Amino acid sequence: MIIQYINEIMKNAKYEILEWWEWFYGEIIWCPWVWAQSNNLETCRKELQEILEEWILLKVRKQKFVPKTSNYDLNQLLCEK
Description:
Distance between the termini: 18 Å
Number of domains: 1
Number of strands: 3
CATH topology: Double Stranded RNA Binding Domain
Number of helices: 3
Radius of gyration: 14 Å
CATH class: Alpha Beta
Structural class: alpha+beta
Helix content: 40-55%
């Protein structure tokens, strides 16, 4: 379930090419402070996913809200404790 949730969130990632630095920048607007940059798009995507995973784990540990997707709501799991 977590993998599917992460994959669904990653579909909302936005990427830019920072031409003056020749870097790629990626972020997920739904998740504050979840961003990454790298010199190629695939590495940027992988790093962004790692940051997202860590962000979700931190939010769950602190029992904070995480974004809902059309198919998943991890917040319900947090409330069941």
